[in-house]
């Protein structure tokens, strides 16, 4: 049974996403950890690696039985720049699951600023004339008029992680009962 989950961030949007998925009895431990990728990841691979690094850091260095890493990034394409988001769930049994989140295109003037090397978290505050967007509704919340905010988007990612973990645990149980 899961009693404690570490989260590799103190960002409230990320913590809320995890809180919404697991039962109230599960104790959440948010810790700021290095993602060991750029502050503004620029591809799916880099963003996914950031999420994995956050989760595995907690298992290795904080002795977390289960840890979740969530990471936001962007992907530039021929048709414009997209938001991308990834999550990873790692366990002290050596398992790791990853899942990608929703993606939408950024308006071009916003994307141009990021191409200049600025971090989305800073750019969006100016662009939307708001403060700490990344800790609240997120860019995705601004661009969808609050229909899908950052916590809701990451909630889906966490559901995909938790669901995969449950599936594999069930499979392991079946295999061990067969062997008996
Ligand atoms: O404290 P941490 O967990 O690092 O939270 P963060 O907001 O910095 O989140 P990420 O490092 O995962 O995001 C990478 C970059 O993309 C920005 N970003 C990603 N998604 C965003 C969103 O929905 N709204 C605002 N900024 C976002 C973020 O501010 C960073 O500059
Ligand atoms: Mg960050």
UniProtKB/TrEMBL annotation:
- The broad enzyme category this protein falls into is hydrolase
Gene3D superfamilies linked to this entry: 3.90.950.10
Query: Which SUPFAM superfamilies does the UniProt record give?
Result: ITPase-like
Tell me the cofactors it needs. Mn(2+); Mg(2+)
> Which reaction equation describes what this protein catalyses?
XTP + H2O = XDP + phosphate + H(+); ITP + H2O = IDP + phosphate + H(+)
Key words, A-Z? Hydrolase, Magnesium, Manganese, Metal-binding, Nucleotide metabolism, Nucleotide-binding
Out of the domains of life, which is the source? Bacteria
Q: What is the recorded name of this protein? A: inosine/xanthosine triphosphatase
């Amino acid at each position: 049974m899961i009693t404690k989950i570490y989260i590799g961030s103190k960002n409230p949007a990320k913590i809320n996403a995890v809180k919404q998925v697991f039962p109230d009895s599960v104790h959440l431990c948010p810790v700021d950890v290095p993602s060991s990728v750029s502050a503004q990841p620029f591809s799916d691979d880099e963003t996914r690696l950031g999420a994995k690094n956050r989760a595995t850091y907690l298992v290795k260095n904080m002795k977390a039985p289960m840890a979740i890493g969530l990471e936001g990034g962007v992907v530039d394409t021929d048709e414009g720049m997209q938001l991308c988001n990834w999550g990873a769930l790692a366990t002290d049994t050596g398992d790791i699951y990853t899942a990608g989140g929703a993606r939408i295109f950024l308006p071009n003037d916003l994307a141009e600023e990021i191409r200049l090397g600025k971090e989305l978290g800073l750019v969006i505050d100016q662009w939307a004339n708001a403060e700490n967007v990344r800790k609240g509704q997120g860019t995705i919340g601004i661009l969808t008029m609050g229909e899908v905010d950052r916590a809701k988007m990451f909630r889906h990612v966490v559901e995909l992680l938790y669901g995969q973990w449950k599936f594999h645990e069930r499979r392991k149980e079946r295999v061990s009962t067969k062997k008996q």
